[in-house]
Amino acid sequence: MRATPHVLVLKETFQIARGAADEETVVVAELERDGITARGEGAPVDYWGETPETIVSAIEAEGEALLGEDLFAGEAISRRLEEWDGPQGAKMALDGVVHDWVGKRLGRPVWQLLGAERVTPPTSYTIGIDTVEGTADRTRRATGYEVLKIKVGGPGDVERLRAVRAETDARLRIDGNEGWDLETARSLTPELLELGVEFVEQPFPADDIEAFMAYRELDRRLPVLIDEGCRDLGSVAGIAEYADGIVIKLSKCGGIREALRMTHAARALGLKVMLGCMIESELGIAQAAQLGSLVDYVDLDGHLLISSRPFTGLGLADGRLVLSERPGLGVEPSDG
């Protein structure tokens, strides 16, 4: 078992309500067994205090023991990972290794083993917080996407969204990253509805349940999906009390297997499901994309925001991710 950090340089500065970044570092776990090399990627959740260094250390110290001798024992591996107090990013990487290895061992792509389909719903493409002029310019350059996700939570949100709408007739979604309060949401909602915004992702701080409940009582409002307040299966039932859907990120829930459980639970509770991501390479995005056809919305554009391409194999056609027909996750290191 090896764990290697990969620095992903962004094409341009990426700003959200919590801050800005020009690069992000992910960790790739690699396991060789029975002549098969399998890989999985994990992304640190920085607002939980995770770092690439802690993920590398955790994988190298305990990764092989957690996976055990039988890589087909998915439920047992999943239980060990769930009980482990290691970083969620490390769990994501190890879960990815297992799925990649099993698929390669059986000669089948993971999406096929999961009963999913090769092509996902259209992925949104993210427009970070910028000036009104900068937002308009980013929108003009975001061609070929049916859906745009606009980061909000800064000054001039409505002006920026007007600028986006003036440039495109794409479907619009917005992401507050906990940057609004209730009064902001109340005042902005009527115009957001007029602009055709489909839904808002995490408008309020995760622990401000009162704000979510109060917003839910408005006669006209946007549907609300929960990201920062959604971690794993244990989060889903509570969210059904105050929101309309969940955002599943493998870096937070720990991998494909837990994400599938969350999807089924959300369906049973009448919640919409969106797959999200951090800034990740094609390897990390491919892990989530295996489930793409099983959810309502896809927000898997992290690999499209970076200037490098350490892994290849994930396709894009008409704004939809197209999974490889090769065994496993269908993603391998780039020759470049």
TrEMBL record:
<keyword id="KW-0413">Isomerase</keyword>
<dbReference type="InterPro" id="IPR034593">
    <property type="entry name" value="DgoD-like"/>
</dbReference>
<feature type="domain" description="Mandelate racemase/muconate lactonizing enzyme C-terminal">
    <location>
        <begin position="132"/>
        <end position="225"/>
    </location>
</feature>
<dbReference type="InterPro" id="IPR034603">
    <property type="entry name" value="Dipeptide_epimerase"/>
</dbReference>
<dbReference type="Pfam" id="PF13378">
    <property type="entry name" value="MR_MLE_C"/>
</dbReference>
<keyword id="KW-0479">Metal-binding</keyword>
<dbReference type="Pfam" id="PF02746">
    <property type="entry name" value="MR_MLE_N"/>
</dbReference>
<dbReference type="InterPro" id="IPR013342">
    <property type="entry name" value="Mandelate_racemase_C"/>
</dbReference>
<dbReference type="InterPro" id="IPR013341">
    <property type="entry name" value="Mandelate_racemase_N_dom"/>
</dbReference>
<protein>
    <recommendedName>
        <fullName>Dipeptide epimerase</fullName>
        <ecNumber>5.1.1.-</ecNumber>
    </recommendedName>
</protein>
<comment type="similarity">
    <text>Belongs to the mandelate racemase/muconate lactonizing enzyme family.</text>
</comment>
<dbReference type="InterPro" id="IPR029065">
    <property type="entry name" value="Enolase_C-like"/>
</dbReference>
<dbReference type="InterPro" id="IPR018110">
    <property type="entry name" value="Mandel_Rmase/mucon_lact_enz_CS"/>
</dbReference>
<keyword id="KW-0460">Magnesium</keyword>
<dbReference type="InterPro" id="IPR029017">
    <property type="entry name" value="Enolase-like_N"/>
</dbReference>
<dbReference type="InterPro" id="IPR036849">
    <property type="entry name" value="Enolase-like_C_sf"/>
</dbReference>
